[in-house]
Design a protein that fits this description.
The complex is a heterodimer of chains A (142) and B (410).
Chain A lengths: L2 H13 L4 H14 L13 E2 L6 E8 L2 E8 L2 H14 L4 H6 L4 H4 L14 H21 L1
Helix pairs in contact in A: 1-3, 2-3, 3-6
Chain B lengths: L5 H8 L8 E2 L2 E2 L1 E2 L10 H14 L9 H20 L8 E4 L2 H16 L5 E5 L8 H10 L2 E5 L9 H7 L4 E7 L11 H10 L4 E4 L11 H4 L3 E5 L10 E5 L1 H6 L10 E4 L4 E3 L13 H17 L1 H20 L4 E4 L8 E6 L4 H10 L2 E2 L1 E3 L4 H7 L4 E5 L6 H17 L2
Parallel strand pairs in B: 3-15, 5-6, 5-7, 7-8, 8-9
Antiparallel strand pairs in B: 1-2, 4-10, 9-10, 11-12, 13-14, 14-17, 16-17
Helix pairs in contact in B: 2-10, 3-10, 4-5, 11-14, 12-14
The chains are: A alpha+beta (142), B alpha/beta (410).
Chain lengths: 142, 410
């Protein structure tokens, strides 16, 4: 599935809910099913700073594709991390670098995009893009 | 039942237009008063009126508006001096807020009076604003910070404080009220102990001045810093009380504008206190707002404010304690209406996010007291900080929200 297809799927999933509480319930469920990062990857280097909750994001580059895993001590943050992993994991650096992130607006989690929320969603997106950019540069130089 | 009638509280709430707004379609429950308090109409009108009718630069012009603005500006200085019972209005310096007041003293005092090997005593409860400026001063001078520890309840350990005071101590800087735990520190006692050793005391009153009367002469502290926006006034204005004897001996750290006497390219002489510490054009409009906030508090009276806030503190403490899994952090016998708490097994960020959607504004995180969090061995808390315009019904909504959060994350 392309990044675009996954984001459309997520938008449809969230559109089923009229009530914000259901949306959060769904996010919490997802938070509990996130593919957890290995404990040995919960390093300071993988810790995303500037968040009220602690978020670790790890990446692996295999056969031209990037795979992400994440963890957080807060469940909502974990759910958001899982959304991002569903969207971006298993894609090429170029696809990730060029991908739009406006889907977060569309699923009604806009408030989490404000820089004051300190929940790390923006930082997570930035970090994912940064990883992709780094692998892209590495690819070109090799 | 509260001792104060619902009609009285409702009439007070009507003074604050923001309190009638909704958040996500629900009535706002504002429990983040330790971060900033809401503003009554009288404050909003004073600022607006200044720009509409009275705007002019102060202390300079011979024209009517300038003289009028100067008079009004200096009247507020007198008002602040009376509010904290300073012995003279010249002991009140306007700053952008408590943080700038701390920076002023940490720069100006330490420049003249702190030497290599000296010590400054802070407490474990301090806000970053009352740590970092002193830490930087110590780094500049080769001096050291010493920290008064806290008891498990969140009170300062004065036995250790006594031991920390010595010949190398050049300043004791402590908060009046802890913004995280709500502890009201025994300032008179701390001042007495420090003065006994000839050491001056700086009080960070950011949380202090909104919860009860402050008499700087009775406290006998050497400096007291405050922010108007935490006492129902505007943001961007606050002040420093300093004893004349210290202010006369200190050199200004910001230069230019209002604070000069005469300038030649060879030599500049400074104005007298308080002006020598007020460089540049002051924030006159917000000083007007600050004056209005003090009028408002005086009109309301401390009897009402403390009665209502103590009632809320007692009521909220009892209700929160009754919830299984809720732990209040900071249980001093002397507390202001600030309650930090944790819900067992639930991250404060998760809880705060859900409460926000229920219209309840609480603070989550370290509350700018990371060293205190390290001492307590936690990453953060939820904090409900209350003001006299809050109600028992709002506390009930907070309690209901906690139950909802517990179900959601169970």
């Amino acid at each position: 599935m392309t990044i675009k297809e996954t984001t459309n799927l997520i938008i449809n999933e969230f559109n089923q809910f009229d009530d914000w509480m259901d949306k959060y319930n769904y996010l919490i469920e997802m938070g509990r099913s996130v593919p957890l990062i290995d404990d040995n990857q919960k390093t300071d280097a993988n810790l995303i700073t500037g968040c009220q909750s602690r978020v670790w994001l790890s990446s692996e580059y295999k056969d031209g594709l990037i795979y992400f895993t994440a963890d957080s001590d807060a469940v909502i943050t974990k759910g958001i991390a899982y959304l991002l992993i569903r969207v971006f994991s298993g894609h090429t650096p170029a696809e990730i670098v060029e991908a739009e992130t406006t889907f977060l607006d569309l699923i009604g989690l806009k408030e989490h995009l404000s820089p004051t929320r300190s929940n790390g969603l923006l930082s997570m997106v930035k970090q994912i893009k940064l990883y992709a950019f780094a692998y892209q540069v590495k690819e070109k130089n090799s | 039942m509260s001792k104060i009638s619902e009609e009285k509280i409702q009439s007070v709430r009507n003074d604050f237009p923001i309190l009638s707004r909704t958040i996500y379609g629900k009535p706002l429950v504002y429990f983040d008063n330790a971060a900033t308090t809401q503003k009554p109409n009288i404050v909003i009108d004073a600022i607006s009126n200044y720009y509409r009718n009275d705007n002019a630069n102060v202390h300079r012009g011979v024209h009517y508006l300038s003289q009028h603005a100067t008079g009004a500006f200096e009247d507020v200085r007198k008002k602040v001096a009376t509010f904290v019972n300073a012995s003279s209005q010249n002991e009140i310096i306007f700053t952008r807020g408590a943080t700038e007041a701390i920076n002023l003293v940490a720069c100006s005092y330490c420049e003249s009076f702190l030497d290599a090997g000296d010590e400054i005593i802070l407490s474990a409860l301090e806000h970053h604003s009352n740590i970092v400026p002193w830490q930087a001063a110590c780094e500049r001078k080769g001096a050291f910070l010493k920290i008064i520890p806290i008891t498990p309840q969140g009170d300062l350990d004065l036995t250790v404080f006594e031991e920390l005071l010595n010949d190398r101590t050049k300043m004791v800087a402590v908060s009046h009220i802890s913004n995280t735990l709500g502890t009201i520190n025994p300032i008179s006692k701390i001042v007495e102990m420090a003065h006994h050793k000839g050491v001056p005391v700086f009080v960070d009153g950011a949380q202090g001045l909104s919860h009860g009367p402050v008499d700087v002469q009775k406290l006998d502290c050497d400096f007291y810093a405050f922010s108007a926006h935490k006492m129902y006034g505007p943001m961007g204005i606050g002040g420093l009380y300093g004893k004349t004897s210290w202010l006369e001996k200190m050199q200004p750290y910001q230069l230019g504008g209002e604070m000069i006497d005469t300038v030649t390219f060879e030599k500049t002489t400074y104005n007298e206190i308080p002006y020598k510490f007020e460089a540049g054009t002051p924030n006159v409009a917000d000083v007007m707002g600050f004056g209005a906030a003090i009028d408002y508090l005086n009109e309301l009276g401390w009897d009402f404010i403390t009665a209502q806030e103590n009632d809320l503190l007692e009521y909220a403490t009892t209700r929160l304690q009754s919830i299984e899994g809720v732990k209040i952090i900071g249980t001093s016998a002397h507390k202001a209406a600030i309650i930090s708490f944790l819900i067992e097994g639930i991250h404060f960020f998760d809880a705060g996010t859900i409460m926000d959607h229920l219209g309840i504004a609480v603070r989550t995180g370290s509350h700018c007291t990371q060293p205190l969090m390290d001492i307590l061995g936690i990453n953060g808390t939820l904090r409900a900080s209350m003001a006299f315009y809050n109600t028992r019904q709002e506390v009930d909504k907070l309690v209901d929200a906690i139950y909802r959060v517990k179900t959601l994350f169970a």
